[in-house]
Backbone:
């Protein structure tokens, strides 16, 4: 599941940058969430319009397909900041201090590498759509805006990876037990508590158990 | 030395490339690279290797970059996938609208007089909640907060109470709408609607087996869960209106998907919209709504990242022809196909103890699924000529349900059965050991369910057969 890890903060430049950047990532993630809601409204309008009035939303499939990249990519850096992308940490969680941070550093460099390669490839993909003026099948929506979302959001993610790498390098240098501005590995219990928090909103806490 | 290594690498057969790259992916996953990126870099390196061998490094590199660059956008912009975020959103909204609690209250008033009645109410209300939510860990977390305190208050055994909640949470993965079944359908290129339909009966059977187990345990040892009486018929009927939205949403989804009224996404969207209106009517604040959106978006990104990452790897596997070779090997093994199937499922049971269900299925299915189809007799086989007595399409659906049930089974097995940790994490009075002990009877119940599903594929295939004519 997509959990949320603990991220430590202090007064350093790294931690400040991390927090400011997180605000930006949160905004992007919220946009992703709003697009999901818009898809919901669009689908409702489409099914009701078609069944009740006989007029479906024009280009419904096109709109849906073109908007999907928003919720698939807008939150990608936000998810990484919170350690939400799933992984297998059963081996690395046994490591401590420098050994741990070194492994984390290597993983992060691997992830940064593929991200940079994909930025190049997906930008090229966008460029072709832009120069050829590609458009969607049904109502001729231009495709390039949605193709541009991919390299842009991956760039936001690449910057997040750079911040992570900075955090791990600092932790290796200091040889400390904990690291600043990176998602920390947690035991299953803490992970589960975080998971539980995500579904225990204000509404349930108000409803006292009688 | 490098020159000769390069030379050797260029002469490797595509199938061997596939094996090396798959091994590389396994290592990256083991050292803790996030699954989506591990699959993506394996896929990219595979393409790079394959095309460098054909075209030389410089050309090969650019072909690989361009080919990899098209995958994230093109694989994500598939309208069938729009189902996933919509169903995720339903789960969060239903919770915030207080529907979950209403459901539990109703189940309590109607069945609590039976032995183990409150536990029974938990099983039925999680099954009901599962019908609007697609995620099992979330379901367990929600019911650990709602149901366990009530059970403890009336003197239930705490391990029993915790076990019921942890096990019942797994029902969400089979009872539609299930996020994991949608992902399975996309990866193996089967009809999403058919899989969702196929999950219904096995989900209901699982719930009934749990219910029978609860009653049996409580009758055998009344201390586990004493019955609770005292609800009048007026009280029973009064509680029903609060649950109407859930039944309304279930009704909409059934009518739309099974009756051909609209696509699964449209049905889900209608359900989400109804629940949203109820939540607003009940005074949902912007901050609560924003939290639901943020969570839904984050979970969606996580799932979509794995989808495009794994599909990039699958793209390379297509060139390497590895799935084909593996399928040939499996199909020609000198043992009964059923034996091979059971070994594969046992492999999943072991893997599932250490890995998240979605990640595990996505990483293995591209290679394992063609092998299962070959084992059954190939992609065009009829039910009469097949090894398992099901047609190729039927086999795809049947295997999907079994493997998902298997993956969920792992959510309640030690050492990292996540549902158990969630329940223990939410309730400070319970240790993880308590939950694992409480869940043990359900563990055996699940083994029986899986055996029944393997022995009688018709339980899985009956509903899609009746409605969609799949044989």
Residues:
């Amino acid at each position: 599941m997509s959990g949320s890890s603990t991220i430590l903060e202090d007064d350093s430049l790294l931690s400040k940058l991390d927090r400011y950047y997180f605000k930006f990532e949160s905004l992007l993630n919220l946009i992703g969430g709003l697009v999901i809601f818009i898809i919901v409204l669009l689908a409702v309008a489409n099914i009701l319009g078609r069944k009740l009035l006989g007029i479906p939303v024009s280009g419904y499939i096109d709109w849906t397909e073109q908007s999907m990249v928003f919720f698939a990519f807008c939150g990608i850096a936000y998810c990484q900041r919170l350690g939400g992308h799933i992984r297998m940490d059963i081996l690395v969680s046994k490591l401590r201090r420098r050994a741990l941070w070194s492994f984390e550093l290597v993983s992060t460099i691997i992830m940064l590498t593929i991200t940079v390669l994909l930025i190049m490839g997906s930008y090229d993909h966008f460029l072709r759509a832009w120069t050829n003026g590609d458009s969607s099948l049904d109502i001729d929506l231009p495709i390039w805006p949605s193709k541009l979302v991919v390299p842009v959001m991956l760039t936001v993610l690449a910057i997040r990876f750079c911040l992570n790498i900075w955090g791990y390098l600092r932790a290796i240098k200091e040889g400390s037990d904990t690291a600043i501005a990176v998602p920390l590995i947690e035991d299953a219990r803490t992970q589960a508590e975080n998971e539980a928090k995500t579904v225990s909103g204000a509404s349930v806490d108000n409803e006292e158990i009688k | 030395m490098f020159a000769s290594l390069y030379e050797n690498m260029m002469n490797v057969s595509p199938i061997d490339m596939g094996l090396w790259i798959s091994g590389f992916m396994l290592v990256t996953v083991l050292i803790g690279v996030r699954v989506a990126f591990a699959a993506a870099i394996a896929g990219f390196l595979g393409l790079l290797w394959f095309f460098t061998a054909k075209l030389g490094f410089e050309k090969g590199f650019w072909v690989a970059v361009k080919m990899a660059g098209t995958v994230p956008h093109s694989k994500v912009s598939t309208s069938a996938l729009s189902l996933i975020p919509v169903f995720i959103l339903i789960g969060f909204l239903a919770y915030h609208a207080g529907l979950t609690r209403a459901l539990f209250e109703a189940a309590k008033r109607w069945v609590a007089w039976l032995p183990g009645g409150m536990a029974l109410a938990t099983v039925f209300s999680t099954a009901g909640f599962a019908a609007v939510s697609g995620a099992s860990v979330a379901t367990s977390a929600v019911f650990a907060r709602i149901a366990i305190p009530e059970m403890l208050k009336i003197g239930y055994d705490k391990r029993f109470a915790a076990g019921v909640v942890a096990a019942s949470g797994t029902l969400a993965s089979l009872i539609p709408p299930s996020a994991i079944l949608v992902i399975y359908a996309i990866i193996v290129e089967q009809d999403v609607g058919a899989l969702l339909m196929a999950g219904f009966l096995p989900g209901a059977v699982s719930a009934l087996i749990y219910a029978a187990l609860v009653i049996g345990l409580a009758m055998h040892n009344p201390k586990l869960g004493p019955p609770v009486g005292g609800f009048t018929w007026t009280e029973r009927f009064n509680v029903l209106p609060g649950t109407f939205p859930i039944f309304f949403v279930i009704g909409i989804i059934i009518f739309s998907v099974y009756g051909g009224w609209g696509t699964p996404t449209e049905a889900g969207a209608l359900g989400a919209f109804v629940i949203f209106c109820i939540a607003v009517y009940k005074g949902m604040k912007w901050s609560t709504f924003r939290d639901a959106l943020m969570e839904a978006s984050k979970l969606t990104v996580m799932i979509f990242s794995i989808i495009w990452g794994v599909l990039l790897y699958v793209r390379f596997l297509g060139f390497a022809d590895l799935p084909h070779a593996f399928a040939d090997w499996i199909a020609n093994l000198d043992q009964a196909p059923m034996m091979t199937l059971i070994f594969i499922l046992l492999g999943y049971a072991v893997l599932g103890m250490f890995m998240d269900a979605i990640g595990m299925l996505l990483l293995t299915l591209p290679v394992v699924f063609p092998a299962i189809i070959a084992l059954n007799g190939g992609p065009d086989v009829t039910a009469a000529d097949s090894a398992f007595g099901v047609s190729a399409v039927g086999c795809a659906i049947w295997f999907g349900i079994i493997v998902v049930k298997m993956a969920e089974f792992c959510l309640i097995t030690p050492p990292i059965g996540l549902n158990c940790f969630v329940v223990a994490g939410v309730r400070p009075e319970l240790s993880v050991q308590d939950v694992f002990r409480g869940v043990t009877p359900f563990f055996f119940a699940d083994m029986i369910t899986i055996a029944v599903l393997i022995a009688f594929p018709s339980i899985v295939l009956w509903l899609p057969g009746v409605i969609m004519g799949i044989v």
